[in-house]
C-alpha cells in the first residue's frame, strides 16, 4: 500500500532538526507493518517546484525514520518509475520503504492524472496520513484516489476528531485564542470562532490592527491599515454575539527587533514615535489566564509575540505554561505556535498539537479539505 505522510520537516546541515512530524506518523506505520502490510511511504519536503533539488532529497528523513522504527528504512531515489516498481515487487510483509520527494515531480502539485496513475500503479490501496497537506488537491492527496481505494490513517483520523471537537458541541466555556502576524491570514477563522466560542482572545501582531481600529496610535508596529474597517466589523459582530472579544491591555514595545534591545511595557495609549509592539504585556497575560482558567475547552492558534527573538517570547511562553497547567482540554495548531511550544519543551503538556498549519486553519474555517473528502471513510 502507499501511505501519504507529512514528513515535511525542518533540515539542518543534512540532518532532521525536528522530527515531530515523523514521530506523529509512527502509530500508523507500526499498526500497518505489525499486521504484515508492505508499506511504501511518500511525502513532500520543502518547495522544489517540480524538479529535483539535491538539498531536498528524502535521505535524512529515511535515516531518522529508521532510527525511530529501530530498523533501517530503504529509500528509493525515484518517486515513480522502474526503481520503485522493482523495490515494490521485492518487498516482504512488514517492510517499509520511502520514496523520493513527491514535489520533485511536476505532476504532483498540478494534480496531473497521468502522474497520479503512475503513483498508484505499484500498490492496491492508498492511506492518507498527511493531515498537514489535506488542504491541497495534489496527485498524492487527491488524484491518486481516482485509481485505488483510499482511507484515512490514524493520525488523519485523530486530527479530524480533535479539531472537530470545538466545532461540534464544544465543552463550555470555550475559549479561542488567536495570534500570529496578520488579521488577513485568519479573517475567516476569526468569524468562525466568534460564532462558536464564549471568549475570543486576540494577541500577537494581529491585535495591533484591532487596537488601531479602536483609535490607538500603534507607532511603527506591524499594522494592516487596509483592514481597519474589517477589524471594526469584527468588533461590532462580537457585540451582537454571545462571544466576548478580548484584546491586550498592555504591550511590550521596543525600537528595534533584536535580542537585548531595550524594551518596555506600556498601555496602548502610551505608544510613541518609532516604538513597535512585539509582545503582549504581563497584565494581558494575567487577564487572558482568567479566561483560560474558567474554560473547559481551549483552542489556540498563532503566537502572542515575536517569539523567535527573546525577550519577545515571554507572552507566548507564559500563556502556554498557564494552559499546560489548567484543567481544560487544549488544542493547539499553527506552524509557528507549535514551533514555539516545541522550543520551550511545552508541547507534550498540551492536550492535542495539530500537525497542520494551513490545513488546521481551513478545517476550522469549515472548508471541505480535498485530501479528506476523497477518503472512503471521511
Ligand atoms: P501560526 O503559524 O502559528 O499560525 P502566524 O504564521 O500567523 O502563526 O504568525 C507567526 C508570526 O507572527 C511569527 O513569525 C511572529 O514573529 C509574528 N508575530 C507575532 N506577534 C508579532 C508582532 N507583535 N509584530 C510582528 N510580528 C509578530
Ligand atoms: Mg505561520
List keywords for this structure.
378 residues; alpha/beta; Rossmann fold; six-stranded parallel β-sheet; 14 helices; binds adenosine-5'-diphosphate; binds magnesium ion
Provide the β-strand percentage band: 15-25%
Overall CATH class of the largest domain: Alpha Beta
Estimate percent helicity. Answer: 25-40%
End-to-end separation in angstroms reads: 19 Å
Please count the helical segments: 14
Shape descriptor reads elongated
Query: What is the SS-derived class?
Result: alpha/beta
Q: Uncertain spans, ≥5 residues at pLDDT below 50?
A: none
Number of strands: 17
Query: If you average the pLDDT, what whole number results?
Result: 96
Largest sheet: 6 strands, parallel
What count of structural domains? Answer: 2
CATH superfamily of the largest domain: Phosphoglycerate kinase, N-terminal domain
Kindly report the CATH topology of the largest domain. Answer: Rossmann fold
Rg over C-alpha atoms, rounded to the nearest angstrom:
22 Å
Bound molecules: adenosine-5'-diphosphate, magnesium ion
What does this 3D model show about the protein?
- The protein is an alpha/beta fold and 378 residues long.
- It has two domains: 2-153, Phosphoglycerate kinase, N-terminal domain (Rossmann fold); 162-363, Phosphoglycerate kinase, N-terminal domain (Rossmann fold, 3-Layer(aba) Sandwich), CATH 3.40.50.
- Helices cover 35% and strands 16% of the residues.
- The strands form four sheets. The protein has a six-stranded parallel β-sheet.
- Helix 12 (335-343) links the parallel strand 16 (329-333) and strand 17 (352-353).
- Helix 1 crosses helix 2 (59-69), helix 7 crosses helix 13 (358-365) and helix 10 (282-293) packs parallel to helix 11 (314-325).
- The protein is elongated, with a radius of gyration of 22 Å.
- The mean pLDDT is 96.
- Bound molecules: adenosine-5'-diphosphate and magnesium ion.
- Magnesium ion (MG) is lined by residues 334-336, 357.
Amino acid at each position: 500500500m502507499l501511505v501519504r505522510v507529512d514528513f515535511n520537516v525542518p533540515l539542518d546541515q543534512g540532518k532532521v532538526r525536528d522530527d515531530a512530524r515523523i514521530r506523529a506518523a509512527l502509530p500508523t506505520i507500526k499498526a500497518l507493518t505489525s499486521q504484515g502490510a508492505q508499506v511504501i511511504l511518500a511525502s513532500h519536503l520543502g518547495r522544489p517546484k517540480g524538479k529535483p533539488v539535491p538539498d531536498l532529497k528524502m535521505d535524512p528523513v529515511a535515516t531518522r525514520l529508521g532510527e525511530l522504527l529501530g530498523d533501517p528504512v530503504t529509500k528509493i531515489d525515484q518517486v515513480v518509475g522502474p526503481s520503485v516498481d522493482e523495490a515494490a515487487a521485492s518487498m516482504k510483509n512488514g517492510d517499509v520503504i520511502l520514496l523520493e520527494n513527491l514535489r520533485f515531480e511536476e505532476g504532483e502539485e498540478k494534480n496531473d492524472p497521468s502522474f497520479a496513475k503512475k503513483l498508484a500503479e505499484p500498490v492496491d490501496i492508498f492511506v492518507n496520513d498527511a493531515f498537514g497537506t489535506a488542504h491541497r488537491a495534489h496527485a498524492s492527496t487527491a488524484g491518486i484516489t481516482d485509481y485505488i481505494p483510499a482511507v484515512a490513517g490514524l493520525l488523519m483520523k485523530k486530527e479530524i476528531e480533535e479539531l472537530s471537537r470545538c466545532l461540534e458541541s464544544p465543552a463550555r466555556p470555550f475559549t479561542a485564542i488567536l495570534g500570529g502576524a496578520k488579521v488577513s491570514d485568519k479573517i475567516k477563522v476569526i468569524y468562525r470562532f466568534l460564532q462558536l466560542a464564549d471568549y475570543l482572545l486576540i494577541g500577537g501582531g494581529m491585535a495591533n490592527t484591532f487596537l488601531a481600529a479602536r483609535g490607538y496610535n500603534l507607532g511603527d508596529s506591524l499594522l494592516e491599515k487596509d483592514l481597519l474597517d474589517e477589524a471594526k466589523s469584527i468588533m461590532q459582530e462580537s457585540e451582537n454575539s454571545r462571544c466576548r472579544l478580548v484584546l491586550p491591555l498592555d504591550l511590550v514595545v521596543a525600537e528595534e527587533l533584536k535580542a537585548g534591545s531595550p524594551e518596555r511595557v506600556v498601555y496602548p495609549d502610551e505608544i510613541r514615535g518609532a516604538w513597535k509592539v512585539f509582545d503582549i504585556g504581563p497584565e494581558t497575560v494575567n487577564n487572558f489566564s482568567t479566561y483560560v482558567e474558567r474554560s473547559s475547552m481551549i483552542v489556540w492558534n498563532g503566537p502572542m509575540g515575536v517569539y523567535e527573538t527573546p525577550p519577545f517570547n515571554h507572552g507566548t511562553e507564559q500563556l502556554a505554561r498557564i494552559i499546560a497547567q489548567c484543567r481544560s482540554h487544549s488544542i493547539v495548531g499553527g506552524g509557528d505556535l507549535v514551533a514555539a511550544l516545541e522550543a520551550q519543551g511545552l508541547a507534550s503538556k498540551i492536550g492535542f498539537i495539530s500537525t497542520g498549519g494551513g490545513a488546521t486553519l481551513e478545517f476550522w474555517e469549515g472548508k471541505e479539505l480535498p485530501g479528506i473528502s476523497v477518503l472512503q471513510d471521511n
